[in-house]
Amino acid sequence: MSGNKTYTLVRCRFIVDSENIVENLNVIIQGNVIKSIGHEIEGDEIDCSNYVVIPGLINAHTHSGMMIFRGYYDDSELADWLSRIWDEERKMTQKVMNIGSEISVIEMLSKGTTGFVDMYFNPEGVKEIAEKYGIRVEAGYTFLDSMMEPHEVDSRQRKLSRTNYFKPIVNVHSIYSTSVDTLKLAKQLAEETETRIHIHVAETRNEIFQSKKKYGKFPVEFLHELNIVEISQLVHLGWVANWELEYVEMATHCPTSNMKLATAGFFPFIDMIEKGKNVTIGTDGPSTNNSLDMFREMKNTVLLQRHSYWDTRIKALHALKSATEEGYKLMGIKGGKIKEGYMADLVLLDSDQLYPLKKDRIVSNIVYNAVGENVSKVIIDGKIAYERGKFSARKKELLSLIDNILI
Ligand SMILES: Nc1nc2[nH]cnc2c(=O)[nH]1
């Protein structure tokens, strides 16, 4: 199905987004946008009577190139894990990162992810891969002082160009792995290249102690003093003070990674939603999650909140909204809703995996019961980017390559 075509998803069993649930209606796709939802049919027809259609899922934080580290030095503390990983990353080639990113992209796409935010060291490769598979991505070089000289990061980043599927963002690993000068350079770069900063913040209690000791401030407070927090997407944020929240604009929750690394804390999901902040969900990398399945992540988002806060203020719908509408908002794309004029980025789920098929249960069944394997087709930018089984030969090829270079 080409992106210039008009076609209709006919008799969708359910069409579900963060605002509406409708049954047995058609979605007309014209070019790369949703033209209408109703009873009309235009162009080619795709029978969707056995599909539940949802907006594409945005994985708001991952490290796609880390596929080679999946399961490596697992089950250790974040600080120990990081120092070992950094030693390995200093020896890693772009080729190895790109193989990892391509496997990650195939995995994400096949599980309903239509866009992702990537923090690693191979954005040129990621850009090519994103264009090849037609998946949306925001990526950039990463400021991490022990890995690359900051001015080198700055000059490489300025050469990255924006394309239809790729947007450069300024990645900063964290406040504990970069100097104040690096943070200032990153801020200037983000402003001059008109993008945002994407940074791990307040991931562990130890980070808070270190920040207090070194800067006399909490991490978010410190970034606020540098006028950085307002233009930043803050990832993890499990150990943020309530009064710091007023400075935060964009935050991303990675519940599985936080639980696995025993760093979980209390990501203030509902508090931030109530304050009108942009709250998104990410899997984190294939080595700290280790899955790249956003369905699991939606479920774990709800579960971790309920476990931490001992209440049920967070609902399944919040998780769905964060993974769709809020993800698109973060990326600055008119998508994440199944509505006239919105981007035709859609996921078709097998309805027989979402039983009982009842209007008042469908969101629960998507968030708490669905898994990536229930995805049958993925449409991005009006084109069918994935159908079950597609890319399995390429994935096998890539896996055999990675098996031969495993550390
Ligand atoms: N959770 C987590 N994952 C990472 N992957 C690479 N760096 C990090 C980090 O600092 N935290």
Automatic annotation (TrEMBL):
The record's EC number reads 3.5.4.3
InterPro entries in the record = Amidohydro-rel, Metal-dep_hydrolase_composite, Metal_Hydrolase, MTA/SAH_deaminase
**Taking every annotated instance into account, which residue ranges of this chain make up the domain Amidohydrolase-related?**
52-384
- What Gene Ontology molecular function terms does this protein carry? guanine deaminase activity
Q: Which UniProt keywords apply?
A: Hydrolase
Q: Which Pfam families match?
A: Amidohydro_1
Its recorded name reads Guanine deaminase
Q: Which organism is it from?
A: Sulfolobus acidocaldarius (strain ATCC 33909 / DSM 639 / JCM 8929 / NBRC 15157 / NCIMB 11770)
